[in-house]
Amino acid sequence: MRRKIAAGNWKMNGSSAALSELDALARLLPTERHADVVICPPAQLLSQAVSTAKPHSIHIGAQDCHMQTAGAFTGDISAPMIADTGATYVITGHSERRAAHHEADADVRAKTQSAQAAGLTAILCIGETLAHRQANRTLEIIADQLAGSLPDDVTADSLIIAYEPIWAIGTGEVATLPQITEVHDFIRGQLTTRFGEATGNSIPLLYGGSVKPDNAATIFEAENVDGALVGGASLKASDFAPIIAALAAS
Ligand code: 13P
């Protein structure tokens, strides 16, 4: 049995007032929880979020890390710095960073390695553009991103993969269950081929892209979907809690 994970990516949203959503979320979640909950707030909230979330067993993650541990990299934060806040997860290779910050697969791989070395669990994102999908190149792109972004020495405890089709992010256009099933089954196959059955079958796979309370249960029907990476609908506890409940019930 793979663990189930509901991760919220707040992106560049939220000041300290937003931390009240963590308390609100905890109030809406059952104490007997059947899914891990991770919130990735913007970097300035990490330490406070760790303190707020700890009594509620909600995990905190960052949205990016630098590949080096320290140095002259103005504006960046490293994986050991993130770990020092008490956060335990970090997103690597989100499509918004790949696009806006020109992060290549090799960068994502180095960041993921740095995260794992610092004891963080990396949530490594991959996904195709609309043009790639329309050209029937989705699986080829996914295979390339996995080959280029994944370190060779992954362990199932320190790695989660999130499939986020770029055309479904923030658009309200969610991938269909057959589309999600096809890609997640393909990712699972790639992982078992590269890392062996035991490790390949243990790495959780999340779907991301316009996951909402009303479509979550359908998405979680896919066998190789172990959870979700949620953007907009993770900002409000009243939206995120029903998604977590749908995952726990799946
Ligand atoms: P939305 O859920 O807002 O589409 O964002 C998905 C995402 O990019 C999460 O990392």
Q: What is the secondary structure topology, with strand pairs?
A:
Layout: E1 5-9, H1 20-28, E2 36-40, H2 46-53, E3 59-62, H3 79-84, E4 89-92, H4 95-100, H5 105-117, E5 121-126, H6 130-134, H7 138-149, E6 159-163, H8 177-195, H9 197-202, E7 205-208, H10 216-219, E8 227-230, H11 237-249
Parallel strand pairs: 1-2, 1-8, 2-3, 3-4, 4-5, 5-6, 6-7, 7-8
Helix pairs in contact: 1-11, 5-7, 7-8
This protein binds 1,3-dihydroxyacetonephosphate.
Give a brief description.
The protein has 250 residues and is of the alpha/beta class. The chain contains eleven helices and eight strands. It has an eight-stranded parallel barrel with strand order 1-2-3-4-5-6-7-8, surrounded by five helices.
